[in-house]
Amino acid sequence: MVGKILARFYYMWGSLHRNFGNRSSFVREHHSAVERFTQAYMADPTMRKARLDRGILFYREMGMLDEALEDFDALLDEDPEYLPALLNRAMVYQERGRYGEALRDLETYVELPTEDEDYYQIAFRTAALLREVVDEMSESDPDIDPAA
Questions:
Q1: 98 near 114, Cβ under 8 Å?
Q2: Is this structure's pTM higher than 0.85?
Q3: Residue 27: phi, psi to the nearest 5?
Q4: How far apart are CA 148 and CA 138, in angstroms?
Q5: Is 83 found in the same domain as 60?
Q6: SS3 for the chain, per residue?
Q7: Residue 146: pLDDT above 90?
Q8: Fewer beta carbons under 10 A from the terminal one: N or C of the chain?
Q9: The pLDDT of residue 148
Q10: Distant-in-sequence, close-in-space partners of 49: CB < 8 Å, separation ≥ 6
């Protein structure tokens, strides 16, 4: 019980640092947010949102794609159908030029039930565009593995 309360406290504290960092562009605020999200997840490993938000922070605000992938991969190892991690990992793969892997994650995402129609539509449209890219790449160079 104490761990869950402590985790919530650290998570809220991390969210404040993230918000301050986004508003002020102070990198140290983002680093502080990472520390607080890490503390939240360590205090309560069932608080997936803390690890997810840390991964998103690594990806979007800090450009630390390897660290973001580590968080998203770990979350998906625990639950392969955790939609927020699946969608964000696809975005990181796409940014890395790993279009086949991004497409695979997006196709999985749109096959699973979701209540968030907006994210579903984004994933659906992005998957369609990536399918064209992957197809064009494999047509122009037959040695390219479209799954990679």
A1: no
A2: yes
A3: -60, -35
A4: 11
A5: no
A6: CHHHHHHHHHHHHHHHHHHHHHHHCCHHHHHHHHHHHHHHHHHCCCCHHHHHHHHHHHHHHCCCHHHHHHHHHHHHHHCCCCHHHHHHHHHHHHHHCCHHHHHHHHHHHHHCCCCCHHHHHHHHHHHHHHHHHHHHHHHHCCCCCCCC
A7: no
A8: N
A9: 58
A10: 11
The answer as to whether 146 is a domain residue is: no
* Domain containing residue 60: 1-64
| pLDDT tens sequence across 57-89 | 999 999 999 999 999 999 999 999 999 999 999
83 and 30 in a common domain = no
Residue 147: other Cβ atoms inside 10 A: 11
Task: Say if 69 falls within a structural domain.
Answer: no
CB 109 within 8 A of CB 123: yes
Alpha carbon distances (Å) from 88 to 5, 17, 43, 80, 138:
27, 21, 24, 13, 25
User: CA of 103: how far to CAs of 17, 57, 79, in Å?
Assistant: 33, 22, 19
30 falls within a domain: yes
Terminal Cα-to-Cα distance of the chain (whole angstroms): 43
